[in-house]
Design a protein that fits this description.
Blueprint (H helix, E strand, L loop, with lengths): L16 H21 L11 H16 L1 H18 L1 H4 L2 H16 L6 H6 L2 H14 L5 H12 L8 H16 L5 H8 L6
Length: 194
């Protein structure tokens, strides 16, 4: 795997690959201009202008070549899938595809599979922690019921605190178990709203 530029401003999932290529070309021109004027200062300690230029050229070639075009095509397929009526009716499937699209937009075409999969590390860790907490005591079916109630609540703007106060009492009545509203809010409900 080669060394490719990935610093802030040049690696954003919000920017289209073509826009990033243009940024890379501007940066490459800036290096040439600095070299021509005798004012080149390396961004990485000990990096020569030739090395820096080589990195940028390799990244541009990858992004404009078949690897980059393949990722562009994957983005098009994912957008079409997200816009599909049947898939769009399933919130979980849509969110999954949006995550995949974010990753596909970020990848320049220069990475190997290990780099691409590395993006998922934090997602897998948080999902494992979430699953472990769902399956610990008290009975996981109580937590699952509360979570189902959270996703299906009629007022999507309801705060976690208000929902938790309401459902701690409902859990006590339905299951005969005392769970504090803080536990429901802090430990059982996801950090993001849908």
């Amino acid at each position: 795997m080669g060394k490719f530029p990935t610093f802030d401003g040049f690696r954003s999932p919000d920017a289209a690959r073509k826009e990033r290529v243009e940024l890379y070309k501007v940066h490459l021109a800036r290096i040439k201009q600095e070299v021509d004027s005798g004012n080149y200062s390396p961004r990485v300690i000990g990096e020569s202008a030739d090395e820096a230029s080589s990195y940028w050229l390799q990244a541009i070639e990858q992004m404009e070549g078949p690897p980059g075009r393949a990722w562009d095509r994957l983005c098009e397929v994912l957008v079409a899938a997200i816009e599909d009526v049947v898939i769009g009716s399933n919130q979980t499937a849509t969110e999954f595809l949006e995550i995949m699209l974010s990753v596909a937009r970020t990848v320049d075409g220069s990475e190997d599979i290990d780099c691409v999969m590395g993006v998922f590390g934090p997602i897998f860790k948080s999902q494992t922690a979430y699953t472990n907490s769902m399956n610990s005591k008290p009975d996981p079916s109580i937590r699952r019921w509360v979570l189902d109630q959270w996703w299906d609540r009629p007022d999507k703007s309801q705060s976690k605190a208000a929902f938790s106060r309401q459902h701690s009492e409902l859990v006590r009545k339905k299951y005969g178990v005392s769970i504090t509203s803080d536990t429901i809010s802090r430990d059982w409900l996801p950090n993001n709203k849908r």
